[in-house]
């Protein structure tokens, strides 16, 4: 059955730009910040409101409440310099493991399980000046589960490097700067770790002066880290 979430994902090309064609997205993720709410996929959210780490809820809550399955939470931006940026690939904004979901649907995350700690959106304002249709970035949240419902994905540096398009990058390095987070492939990550999508959503965020400064700072820090061998 095609859900409303899946229909919007296909309409806005989250499928196939991020997820493989035919991917099922059975539930919605509601994302809440202190000053903003993403209640359905495709909402425009003010960039400055998205900087704190949000709280998420699965709607409807997963039926499997008895076995307390373990999930993985992922947030990516596929549109760093332009829509569906193939040069820099997807940028990983958040990746955390051993996530649980309460009976009320709240997604429970622990910072000590972060592989890539949450980094708020910093879209480039120049999106309005790129060739083609002007657009904001499609920041996408996905709650994933191992297909067996039991085993955890192989979240180690070797398996995670297989989730890259192009060069393997530095996945798993402690720095987790923007260079480490680029060239990510959600489709490969899901396939490599035998996962399925439990819930998802995405927001549209346009750049502003603050995000331009932050983006430049993130890039500068990433380049400095790599020059120092981090």
UniProtKB/TrEMBL annotation:
Per the UniProt record, one Pfam family is PBP
Residue stretches spanning the membrane: none
UniProt cross-references to InterPro entries, sorted A to Z: PEBP (IPR008914), PEBP-like_sf (IPR036610), PEBP_euk (IPR035810)
The name this protein carries in UniProt is Phosphatidylethanolamine-binding protein
Organism (species): Byssochlamys spectabilis (Paecilomyces variotii)
